[in-house]
Amino acid sequence: MTNFHPRGQRGIALIVVLILLVVMSLLAIVSLRSTLLEERMSANMMDRSLSFQAAEAALREGEAIAAGKSVGDAACTNGICNQPAAASAPRWQGTGWTNARTTSVNLGNKTAAAQYFIEYLANNVPARGTCTTTEDVSPDATCTQLEWRYRITARSTAAGRATVMLQTTYAVP
């Protein structure tokens, strides 16, 4: 009588399937991370867009107030400031936001808060195209119209959200 001994396993199917499972799992993880990153980027872009719209609306509100030719004071009462001193730091970099005006902007189904202040710059600036010389700022120019100039700075910020700061120079004839 002969003893029958079965031969050992020779297939590698189990190993191949396990390797394929690991590769597919890695592909799924990479795809998931990419999708999450894109979602965060689009949410950040939406936050920035809303903040930009709020800051822009605050600029427009500031322009409407500056059209009244206000001069302001050193304390920036009601968000209207006098001429900035040449040696001082810009108001938007320091604590200048403590006296800034605050406005609430309705952006469809969301509301965003924005702050702005108006800095009076000068009231004797020649308007473009109203002087007899090619250089409007020339001391010998004969100008027919002088403008009031303001610098309006607005920012929209919220905790954990994008912060946007905009600035414009506004001329009032």
Share of helical residues: 25-40%
Number of helices: 1
As a whole number of angstroms, the C-alpha radius of gyration is 32 Å
The helix-strand sequence is: HEEEEE
Mean pLDDT: 83
Q: Report the biggest beta sheet as strand number plus sense, adding barrel if it closes.
A: 5 strands, mixed
Keywords: Membrane, Transmembrane, Transmembrane helix
Transmembrane segments: 12-32
Protein name: Type IV fimbrial biogenesis protein PilX
Organism: Lysobacter dokdonensis DS-58
Description:
The chain has 173 residues and is α+β, with helices and mostly antiparallel strands. The protein has one domain (13-132, 141-172). The chain is 31% helix and 27% strand. The chain contains 1 helix and 5 strands, in the order H-E-E-E-E-E. It has one helix spanning 13-66; strands at 80-81, 101-107, 110-126, 146-156, 164-172. Strands 1, 2, 3, 4 and 5 form a 5-stranded mixed β-sheet that branches. The protein is rod-shaped and about 125 Å long. The chain starts with 12 loop residues before the first helix and ends with a strand. The mean pLDDT is 83.
Summarize the structure.
The protein has 173 residues and is an alpha+beta fold.
Task: Give keywords.
single chain, 173 residues, alpha+beta, 5-stranded mixed sheet, 5 strands, 31% helix, 27% strand, membrane
Write the topology of this structure.
Elements: H1 13-66, E1 80-81, E2 101-107, E3 110-126, E4 146-156, E5 164-172
Parallel strand pairs: 1-3
Antiparallel strand pairs: 2-3, 3-4, 4-5
